[in-house]
Amino acid sequence: MQEKNRGLGLFTLLIYLFLLGPLVIIAFASFEPGSALKFPPQGISFKWYHHIFEVTMFKTSFITSIVVSLAGNLLALLLGLPAAYALSRFQFRGKDTLNAIFISPVLIPGIVLGFTMLKYVIITYQLPIYAALLLGHTVIMLPFIIRVIASSLANFDFAVEEASLSLGAGRLKTFFTVVLPNIKSGIIAAVLIAFLESFNNVDISVFMTGPGVSTFPIQMLLYVENNFDPTVAAISVLLMLFTAVLMFIIERLMGFSYFTKR
Prior knowledge:
Layout: H1 2-29, H2 47-52, H3 56-89, H4 95-107, H5 110-124, H6 129-153, H7 158-166, H8 171-182, H9 184-199, H10 205-208, H11 216-226, H12 231-253
Helix pairs in contact: 1-12, 3-6, 3-9, 3-11, 4-6, 6-9, 7-8, 9-12
Subcellular location: Cell inner membrane; Cell membrane
Membrane topology: Multi-pass membrane protein
Pfam families: BPD_transp_1 (PF00528)
């Protein structure tokens, strides 16, 4: 039994090394003072972190990613909140089918979804690049909004809503004054997770961007095609820290157990 536990511990350690090893290598390589990416670094320097803010295309694409992620998040929330409420609150014919449609952007490979949107949204309907990019990111954020808010609603006692309705409050007023305050942590967590998914997205964005319009991850890909300096490693470290902070906030709000519930 003791040997079995020791073997399991060793296997777990190897998995952690496999997952965290590349992140550690990237973090150390970002401090390389030379003009080429090396590991281990030949010294310690923060010049590549400073260089990030000197590259105009990074600043422009970062703003584009922020704007698209926030605007798409708002649209996804306006669509996903009532959808999650209806799916959690009511029983109706076709509920499972509707739920499957809402979740499908997560199940369909991103390359397939991106190519399909390129063919129909941009080529067939000729939407402007920004509008197409916003639509694509709204679609990929919607499942996360619905899933997380539905998980929060699963822990809400709808008897409280019934009590409010029986006391004379309208359904709309009850939703905003009774239901919404009780699931606000779930809404915040849904917004944060959807924002991360949108901001870091590559497979949809690579099809939906065009001349003069690029998101931050796509610009990073374009940069490494022509440069081999540690700039992208430095950006990766900053993005890892940013993601870790947001995930810590989500954990404090809801706990990761919310996302494993059906």
